[in-house]
Amino acid sequence: MPLYEHQELKIYNSLSGEKEVFQPLTNGYVGMYVCGPTVYSNVHLGNCRTFISFDLVFRYLKHLGYKVRYVRNITDAGHLENDAETGEDRIAKKARLEEIEPMEVVQKYTVDFHNILYKFNNLPPSIEPTATGHIVEQIEIIKEIIDKGFAYEANGSVYFDVLKYNESNHYGILSGRKLEDMIANTRELTAQDDKRNPQDFALWKKAEPQHIMRWPSPWSVGFPGWHLECTVMSSKYLGDEFDIHGGGMDLKFPHHECEIAQGQAATGKNPVNYWMHANMLTLNGKKMAKSTGNNILPKELFSGDNDVLSKSYSPSIARFFMLQANYRSILDFSDEALTAAEKGFHKLMDAIALAPSIPTNPNNSSSGIKEWREECYEAMNDDFNSPALIANLFKAVKFINHKIENKITILEEEKEILIKTLHDFTFDVLGLEAVTALENNQDSERLTNVVELLIELRAKARANRDFETGDKIRDELAANGIQLKDSKEGTTFSL
Ligand code: AMP
Ligand code: ZN
What is the arithmetic mean of pLDDT over 60-73? Predict the structure, then answer.
């Protein structure tokens, strides 16, 4: 029997503002869509946090035995410089600045995105569709929305009629915003505006002569509005109604609100059952963002090449740092927090490596390992509460260290459950990778070279009967966590 049959997963649904018991549309199957990156620059750690949050969701659903179809798009057209539908296309702008083709920009940053997420041990989605690969479908859905009376053409562009939609539906259902307030707080339209109302949003925009990313359509040579691609690609691969839609908190309005309106207008159905929003990674208390420059790039983290960092950190440490916070909480990035996470990470990994050495005895009474396993599930069933899960894994760390240090036995059966559960949750669900301290950063090669040089100098000193220098090298290394071991074959070291 699959695990989900006897686990009750609850998901915080942004639509209702409550934790709800997860019930997929088709028993045993989950359709999940997550908004992907706009590939016009390197992803920063903030972006990575959101994708790691949904990787956790994907991994846990799979662990529970669901067959998950996970769709995550690549935005390679239609996302203008500012979200209010003005300015240049972000990708076209980058292409102009770098003097390359827009599709070269797309290729370069899509490859970077994949490489980075692979380093963070994110699983690839089941389908990764692109906006430019779905222009035909976007034109078709615009026709449907116009036919249903919820969109209008003006000067070669097509706009979604928010006021008309709101007569029979609720625009603001996800974000909790009221249309009257939105109307009160927006500027008046100018003569250049083609929209009937400032709240209306573009489904299709006529291309200005300088706009190079353009396609023919019944209305003009132009390009689709940014919100449309996600409606089209989610419905194409998951159906008009599907289970989970995710994205960063900053996408809730207008992007996701518009997605609901588009789907509802085109099909008369509410497209998504569970809306999930991941919270932001901040730096110095401010959201990490591409546009402000307040961000850290993953490659800077892995090399330590940023003034904020005292050293380099491996992807697994950063992943562990992020998963120590709930995906719905804001998380502030700092070097101290990363260092603390690194310590915790190694403690956990060391205990997992030691667990097989716990002595066993068939005459023992239960140590409560089955109950502990249930607590791991309870944590994850509570809206993917990874910090609660990690706290529970640390209970096991304490347990393992205590048994080993004091040579206390447990039941063989419990030891097996302990080891399997630790592996399931640490590696499969949290997606952490066992890194030894030496593999854990890109400086490891340099470190090895330096330690080997010191070993050589120590050997020379000892050969010259300069034991004082020899001992000083050994003691200083030990004080820095590097142990030397002398044997007939020579001297080796460990961290
Ligand atoms: P973008 O490429 O800008 O569309 O962003 C890709 C994803 O990263 C979206 O889901 C954003 O919500 C998310 N994101 C952007 N900035 C941050 C941040 N500072 N922390 C967490 N997620 C973010
Ligand atoms: Zn989207």
Answer: 98
